[in-house]
From TrEMBL:
This is Porin. It comes from the Bacteria. It comes from Ottowia beijingensis. GO terms for molecular function: porin activity. One of its GO terms (cellular component) is cell outer membrane. Its main location: membrane. Residues 1-19 form the signal peptide. It is found in: Cell outer membrane.
Length: 314
């Protein structure tokens, strides 16, 4: 009888512990057909042929599978992790953003009412500072993302330590830092300030590598209900060469259908020597809350690119 009571007590305690933690499997499947004349910042090569596309410039997003978990440590403190791997639906191979199997995310965090501290490979503050106002949800074919590369930083950092503040009525900030030995002997800092409350979304992204130029992006959007307008000004650099300009665009929503037009214009472009006006037209139709079809045309630095596909989130 005593052994039975002890066993029940152990099982009860175990069940309580399990109830305080959770692990979630999630992912994205995105594939279609398209033609790509331009390479992309992510390293996708141009083919100039209409073909099956997965993980390309003209997909809405990269297919991926990930696992994330969180444990309630008590007293308002939580611990969590996120591992995420890319998938190429063309052949089933790993599509690593950075070369590793968990190339999209590999990080650990602690959080509470004081904010969140994170360590590892993760989407960086400049990325979040851009997506606070960008119209496509940071699609692969985002004209702002491709022209100014998320304030010149790209979407992810390796070996990053970061702290994000709590939300103060829609206002938050995050700062990330990479130590010198983890970034080719050149320390890097990356930060954002975001305001998201009601119809307004705005974000400032700033980052700098030691001895490099300061990259930045400042943008905002306003939601009128069925119509959203957005504008921004950004500077991205590669070494001592800078690309600088503004964006202006809008999204109109008609039930399950949404149409986006977004334009960028260079005011300075030392990377190519020519100033470009780039543009994106995107159409999406929601089949459900997690699945939509899309078509997009991207005019990028004198190249024409298009894609038609289906995206399913799970």
């Amino acid at each position: 009888m005593k052994k039975s009571l002890i066993a029940l007590a152990v099982l009860g305690a175990s069940g309580f512990a399990m109830a305080q933690s959770s692990v979630t499997l999630y992912g994205v499947a995105d594939a279609g057909v398209g033609k790509i004349e331009a390479g992309s910042p992510a390293g996708n090569d141009a083919s100039d042929k209409t073909e099956f596309i997965s993980g390309s410039l003209m997909n809405n997003g990269n297919s991926r599978i990930g696992v994330r978990g969180v444990e309630d440590l008590g007293g308002g403190l939580k611990a969590g992790f996120n591992f995420e791997s890319g998938l190429d639906l063309d052949n089933g191979n790993n599509l690593g953003s950075g070369g590793g199997f968990w190339g999209r995310a590999a990080n650990l965090w602690l959080g509470g009412n004081w904010g969140t501290f994170k360590m590892g490979r993760t989407l960086n503050p400049s990325f979040y500072g851009t997506t606070a106002w960008e119209l496509t949800g940071a699609a692969n074919y985002s004209v702002v993302g491709n022209t100014y590369n998320f304030a010149g930083s790209g979407p992810r950092n390796n070996s990053q330590f970061s702290y994000k503040t709590p939300d103060f009525g829609g206002l938050s900030a995050e700062i990330g830092y990479i130590l010198k030995p983890d970034n080719g002997d050149r320390a890097k800092w990356d930060m954002n300030v975001i305001y998201a409350n009601g119809p307004i979304g705005a974000g400032l992204a700033v980052n700098k590598v030691k001895d490099g130029k300061t990259n930045y992006g400042l943008g905002g959007k306003y939601n009128f209900g069925n119509f959203v307008v957005a504008a921004s000004y950004s500077q991205a650099s590669v070494g001592d060469l800078r690309r600088r300009g503004f964006s202006l665009g809008g999204t109109a929503t008609f039930g399950a259908f949404a149409l986006t037009l977004d334009l960028t214009r260079d005011t300075k472009n030392e990377l190519t020597g020519d100033k470009y006006t780039n543009g994106l037209v995107e159409a999406k139709y929601a089949l459900s809350k997690r699945t939509f079809v899309y078509g997009a045309f991207l005019r990028f630095d004198d190249t024409n690119n298009y894609g038609i596909g289906v995206r399913h989130n799970f």
